[in-house]
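New here. Invent one.

***
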Amino acid sequence: MDQTGFYNRLCRILSKEQIFCREPMSRHTTFRVGGPADYYLTPRPEQAADLLQLCRREQMPYHVIGNGSNLLVGDQGIRGAVVAFAKPAAQITVSGNYVTAGAGALLSQTAAAALQAGLGGMEFAAGIPGSVGGAVVMNAGAYGGEIKDILTRVVVLDREGQRLTLENRELDFAYRHSCIPSRQLTVLEAEFTLQPKPQEEIQALMDDLRNRRISKQPLEYPSAGSTFKRPEGYFAGKLIMDAGLAGFVVGGAQVSEKHCGFVINANAAKAADIRELIRQVQQKVYEQYGVRLETEVKFMGEF
């Protein structure tokens, strides 16, 4: 592949300030691990179609990410391009009962805008560290709320670069699932329908949920939040605790003693440490209880 030619063609779509070469992914994941991406690109929404078409035309592998809050990137990094919807795609607008947010907007920022407008229903999302785009893709949720409960519609790009608007019912939402990955769609923007509510009530619920997180979750360590999906009929954290794995260590990675559902970067962990710890936890839980733990965390790049 002609890397110089690809870079020059990139510069016809993005400014040089939007293009990072050999960018360490440890700067862009909440685990704070990960080797360099060949290209780390931060398009505005209107640039995304041309950028993705260029990658396909040039046969440049690419991965679309948000805030990196649900990713484990390998120590050897990512060959190809990482397309990150970040600040250039983080606009938030409020109109009536509707909050519209770009894929790069943080859930916390979007929930704060809803609070400011006196709109309730998004309180559960205020403490989720992800972006709007990533949250829609995986139907993120916490404390009994999920994105599917408040999403009206989403604007996406299909593989041909066409913009589509899909309604909630078209997204096949389920627990930590949507049809967006299987259809190879790219989220640009999401609209949420909320309900008027006194600001003090919204703030009180946000404060309560924040205090519950602080008391129960290892927020002082880098992590990707809940490492495993909830197995049907069980709780992942309890299974791991009952298996005697609280505090279990591989290299610099550790099963949190505060909440066994969290794998944390406790001591300058490598991505390989985290991946191996996850594998051993899955194996030990299966051996003891016959339950296969599926990760919420997505693995990306070369380990």
Remarks:
- The CA atoms of residues 136 and 147 lie 6 Å apart.
